[in-house]
Amino acid sequence: MVIIISASIIGILFFILLNEEQSYFLIEIYNPDKTFTGTTLFADLSNGEEPRIVEVDMDGNVVWEYILPDDIKSYTNPGFDVELLPSNNVLFLAPQKGIYEINRAGIIVWSYLDDKASHDADRLPNGNTIFIWGGSDTHDDLQVKEVNTAGTIIWSWKAKDHYYYDPYKNISMQGWTHSNAVTRFQNGNTAINLRNFNLTVIVNNAGKVLKELNWSSLGDDPHEPEFHPNGNIVIALQWTAPNQVVEIKNTTSNVVWTYHRDNLTFARDADRLANNNTLIVGVVGNSPKIFEVTSDGEIVWQLAIRGKYLSTLSPGWFYKAERIYYP
Questions:
Q1: How far is Cα 236 from Cα 222, in angstroms, rounded to an integer?
Q2: In this predicted model, what pLDDT tens digit does every residue of 184-232 receive, in sequence order?
Q3: What's 236's domain CATH number?
Q4: Tally of domains in the chain
Q5: What is the pLDDT of residue 12?
Q6: What pTM did the predictor assign?
Q7: Other C-beta atoms within 10 Å of 28: how many?
Q8: What angle is formed at CA 267 by the lines to CA 263 and CA 269, rounded to 5 degrees?
Q9: Tens digits of per-residue pLDDT, 35-61?
Q10: Percent of the chain residues topping a pLDDT of 70
Q11: Average pLDDT, the chain
Q12: Cβ-based burial of 220 (10 A; exposed 0-12, middle 13-18, buried ≥19)
């Protein structure tokens, strides 16, 4: 996702001035002639005592951060999702706690508490918020809920109504479906990513499954399908080798682009940028990375944590990231 914010909004950011020697993040690769220049917003779990949301510039300097308060900071797994809203507020999902909207001063301006929320939450154009539950979901759970600003559930979807049969009925791996992404389209249909079924399904407003995209021939553990105006879909596939990012043509499911690099694991998120580069979150070797690649696979920007590597936290310090363009 690329978010465009007017230049007038930049002034309200709280800039933390860090020089290169002080920078917490290490930029290992940077080719400014080939990147889509902007800032990058993501959740940083590298300090277990102070999980935070950060925005960094292309040099890895933190230009804004929000440290989770004590009553929220233990709720970061699975899927600590963060997104920038057009208002310049930040929406984030604290798994098994709820969804919060904060302004740039770190003040919570809206929240919806629900211990059955994980992985993904989106603010819809009508002001409602749609989110997923797949952390440890059961047959009787709602996998998707849409709530209005007053916190009333106005739409929901339950996998049991559609997949309570073999080979899906008795699957269990960190929950039944382990649903991990939801997208609402302009026509009112909704895409739901059912990780344990290796499916992305498109459902209508009545909940009927209109289409299934089965990723089994390309990989396992699908994350964050991204739907593009040309009908193509970009998705991150992890779990079994090779971990890769795949782009398919929606009408035919033909593969039109793939990306893989040596020692890539936990490919969790892939965002197509406006210059046709792709921003990817994953682990390379034993180091969590956020990196940008061109259409021919050249790495033109790569962020890591200075002097710190993956230890016991799986799948890594990062979950998703988005590039923000300030004109």
A1: 6
A2: 999 999 999 999 999 999 999 999 999 999 999 998 899 999 999 999 9
A3: 2.120.10.30
A4: 1
A5: 36
A6: 0.91
A7: 16
A8: 150
A9: 999 999 999 999 889 999 999 999 999
A10: 91
A11: 91
A12: middle
Give the whole-angstrom CA distance, residue 130 versus residue 272: 22
**Closest C-alpha among 56, 15, 22 to residue 318:** 56
Calculate mean pLDDT across residues 169-191. Answer: 97
The residues near 252 (Cβ < 8 Å, ≥ 6 apart) are: none
**Domain range holding 314?**
2-325
State yes or no: pLDDT of 116 exceeds 70.
Answer: yes
Instruction: Tell me the C-alpha distance between 216 and 38, whole Å.
Output: 35
Neighbours of 18 (CB within 10 A): 16
Angle ∠(300,301,305) on CA atoms, nearest 5: 150
Indicate if the pLDDT at residue 250 is higher than 90.
no
How many CA atoms lie less than 13 Å away from 191 in the CB half-sphere?
Answer: 23
